[in-house]
Specification:
26% strand
């Protein structure tokens, strides 16, 4: 009954200081009211003791207990159950545009660029619990892997299914960006974001990256660009073996950083360079911090007052004390 008790007016407990004052006053008054008689000997008197006389101070104790209970009632003891509901007040729609060209199988990131990217992107998706996310993949062409959705299970499943070979090889940055813009242009979200990832230079497609960037600006879509690849040489697919597998060789990493920087600047985003797995993870962490979703937390309090018990207890003690005083202890009052 009295678990998790809190008090609405705890300042009333200062009144408990009156109790020791009342005790001192009672002792002083009792001494003054007690008559004394000095005689040389009490041998002639028959010794007798009254139990009621010894119990009479109990009436005062009952009053003290009643006063303490009344003060506790005035402090308003109460219990409360708190329920919380969160409400997204400023959601974000995000499209992740991933380069899936053959160069994304380079092994400067472990085990390769594409796999490392999928792992980090999956963690990012899991952390964006209140946002809608879509996936676009591109190489020489582009297509929507997953439209923007709040169902993270679908996004994560689609992300794990992304692999090289679904599209013609090449790097069409403009196509990937334009497809992403198309997914977001009709969004009603307060904030619209594209995360564009590539490890090369634009060499395919019929839409220029700058044209796609202008479309993003027109629709108010911010674009974060990420260049993936180490500085210098990387072990990269260079040819096919007779069995159809890739033959790897060292090749210089070429990323059009100027283009990616221009796209980010024009759309109000930011350009990053991921040279290893740790840096890629840090980049996603920074984007996660930059794009904050506003969430309103609503708390509902169900408060139950417990002062009635103490008030009734005080009244009961006073009535009991009154009853004893004018019945059992009447001759002593």
């Amino acid at each position: 009954m009295f678990e998790n008790i809190q008090f609405a007016n705890p300042q009333f407990f200062w009144l408990l200081l009156l109790l020791p004052v009342a005790i001192v006053w009672y002792i002083f008054k009792r001494k003054k009211e007690t008559a004394s008689l000095k005689i040389s000997s009490i041998k002639g008197f028959k010794a007798s003791s009254s139990v009621l006389a010894k119990l009479k101070p109990g009436l005062f104790v009952l009053r003290l207990l009643a006063l303490a209970a009344l003060i506790t009632a005035m402090a308003r003891p109460q219990t409360s159950d708190v329920s919380t509901r969160t409400k997204t007040t400023r959601g974000i729609d995000i499209v992740i545009a991933m380069d899936v060209s053959s160069s994304m199988l380079a092994r400067d990131l472990k085990p390769n660029r594409l796999t490392a990217l999928k792992r980090v992107a999956a963690e990012f998706v899991k952390e964006r619990v209140s946002d809608r996310i879509g996936l676009v993949e591109y190489s020489a062409e582009s297509y929507t892997k997953t439209p923007i959705t709040s169902d993270k299970a679908i996004v994560l499943r689609s992300l794990s299914d992304i692999k090289y070979g679904e599209l013609e090889d090449g790097t069409a940055i403009g196509m990937g960006l334009a497809t992403s813009v198309n997914r977001l242009k009709d969004s009603k979200a307060k904030s619209k974001v594209i995360i564009l990832l590539t490890d090369g230079v634009n060499n395919s497609g019929f839409i220029e990256p700058q044209t796609a960037a202008e479309l993003a600006v027109e629709y108010g879509i911010k674009t974060y660009t990420i260049g993936i690849g180490t500085n210098g040489m990387a072990l990269t697919p260079i040819a096919y073996n007779p069995d159809g597998s890739f033959r790897y060789g060292m090749r210089e990493v070429e990323i059009d950083e100027q283009l990616l920087q221009n796209i980010a600047d024009k759309t109000g985003g930011k350009y990053f360079r991921a040279t290893n797995n740790k840096k890629l993870s840090e980049i996603y962490g920074e984007i996660n911090k930059l794009e904050k979703t506003e969430i309103e937390e609503l708390k509902y309090y169900n408060i139950q007052e417990k002062f009635r018990f103490f008030a009734l207890f005080a009244v009961g003690l006073l009535m009991f004390e009154y009853l004893l005083r004018y019945t059992v202890f009447r001759s002593l009052v």
